[in-house]
Amino acid sequence: MSTKPNTKEPAQAKASTSSTSSTAPSSARERLSSLASHLLPSGNTEFDYVIVGGGTAGAVLANRLTEDREVSVAVIEGGPSDVGDDRVLDLRRWLEMLGSELDYDYPTVEQPRGNSHIRHSRAKVLGGCSSHNTLISFRPFNEDLDDWKNNYGCPSWGSSNLQPFGDRLKMNIVPVAPQQRNQVARDWVQACSLATGAPILEDLNAQIVHRGGFQEAVGFFDISYDPYNGHRSSASVAYLHPIMPHGPHRRHNLHLFLETWATKLEYEADAATAEPLKVKGVRVRTKHGLEKTLSARREVILCAGAVDTPRLLLHSGIGPRSQLERLGMECRLDVPGVGENLTDHPESIIMWETRDTPPETVMSSDAGLFLRVLPPNAEPNPHPGPDLMFHIYQIPFADNTARQGYEVPEHAICMTPNITRSQARGRITLASNDPEEKPLLDFKYFEDPRGYDERILVEGIKWARKIAQQSPFKEHLVKEVAPGPSCQTDEQLSAYARSVAHTVYHPAGTCRMGTPSPSFGGKGRDPTVVVDQNDLKVVGVKKLRICDASLLPTLPTVNPMLTILMVAERAAELIRNDAWVQGRRRTDWD
Ligand SMILES: Cc1cc2nc3c(=O)[nH]c(=O)nc-3n(C[C@H](O)[C@H](O)[C@H](O)COP(=O)(O)OP(=O)(O)OC[C@H]3O[C@@H](n4cnc5c(N)ncnc54)[C@H](O)[C@@H]3O)c2cc1C
């Protein structure tokens, strides 16, 4: 059976042909967008730093590195500006972007034990996925970061190293405002606590900051937004808008190249013989088809995300030799870990018809529940924290259930249990040597050998039904629509949960950081390490770092955006400190 999905309809072909605006373009929006976007320079194409991807992590780096006005920073972003685009800025409209021209919309390869129809949204717009996502904002648990430190060869990324960077984040992170808490969601929070004993927390993040995490809790989410107008406080809004050409604190050393696609890395001429490989710059193509190389005096930083960073490395000849040679591509550096270790937070769904849909909401998924459903220290997840998380959706989130023939009610509430510490590990590979073709995403959903992931979802559906029995929440419900009361045994629940499984859109880990070792032996030393945890440089390559979701060794228990932003804040500090040391030594940048 073929594992190759229909991957034509190339992402970057779209990038090169789509128009600037995604919605009906207002003239004000066009004016602001064109102010923000630079045409490729005809003369100087050299910058101190070239950042690939003006997304979540890229926005942080662009801001922090341009704080030094002596430093020039180019940001290459495949999508258009989000400035003035209400479809992007109005958080409540996030669903409209799924599958739109602002979405790279990556398919998964066939998943024999899961749902092969999952589409992985990755935003094609300034701010990246922070301009598309639901902006649910959790600081990482201490245990997640200490796991990186103790078990994944990342001694510099424990909780004491990274948590302080959470205090630097510029976004407006607040719990859902009272005027946006509707009665059904309020009653659901109470029902969760009654059914499970989980405490109701008014500010989930505060608990993480002060106590390092929690095992069980329920409450309204913390969200990066402006409660007054419902607008996003995305990485773009918080880190880029103020310093863009129209912004109040314009920085002339920031050079944004929008709707411009990085096609491959360029190396110094002698790199074929010299070790190690040394990056010179990035080959880019504008939406009008103009090609150029943007050179980096200091370095190139890849912030293209968990799918496109490994994809760009592979198209630049950095990756598993066997894969590259099989596709007829030159292997400049054999790095077996590029594209490996693909991880996600898979989820399933249980849906009830409700009497109505209350209007008050931030983005229709305003509250969540964390539970520990398997005994602490249960193999293969020895971590004591929550092993199950629920989002609720106060809309019929029915794509996957409708495909299985379930009805789609007009009003619905969905509980979506997800696996906080999924044991599945997949990979991203190239479909061909054609850079226009989308890569192959194989998450290996529910293929973990001990069946841990499906067990968590089965427990999740059982808990959801207990929650649904609590008053006054149960009075809002008309009937269980999917899977419906006839689905009862563990086998039936597992089969259903896997067939309608979805993603929380958290792919990560495909260029993982760790401790590289020439001998590749010992605890935490792994031949699949792509990024050196000391400095985030790509192992064996000069002038190249990675900073985005691809470097996470494992996903945090919680939604990962703040973790990625905090990693970027720390990366900015590392890069600036390095520059200072290099400058003092007056040596060549490496
Ligand atoms: C629908 C959705 C909902 C989500 N909800 C939440 C949530 O509520 N809370 C949470 O914590 N997380 C959420 N996430 C996940 C979170 O948003 C991502 O994990 C995170 O934003 C990824 O950040 P990143 O910097 O790695 O990549 P991105 O933010 O995706 O940035 C990558 C950028 O690089 C650009 N790019 C890629 N390739 C190239 C190239 N070759 N040339 C030029 N530009 C390129 C892209 O256009 C993009 O702007 C959600 C994600 C989605 C899609």
What would you say this structure looks like, in words?
It is a single chain. This protein is α/β, with parallel strands linked by helices and 590 residues long. It has a single domain (11-585), classed as FAD/NAD(P)-binding domain (3-Layer(bba) Sandwich). It is built from 15 helices and 27 strands. Helix 3 (56-65) packs parallel to helix 15 (561-585) and helix 13 (452-467) packs across helix 14. The radius of gyration is 23 Å and the shape is globular. The two termini are 46 Å apart. Residues 1-27 and 519-524 have low confidence and may be disordered. The structure holds flavin-adenine dinucleotide. Flavin-adenine dinucleotide (FAD) is lined by residues 52-58, 76-79, 121-124, 128-130, 132-136, 261-262, 303-306, 308, 312, 505-506, 548-549, 559-561, 564. Flavin-adenine dinucleotide binds next to helix 3, strand 10, helix 10 and helix 15.
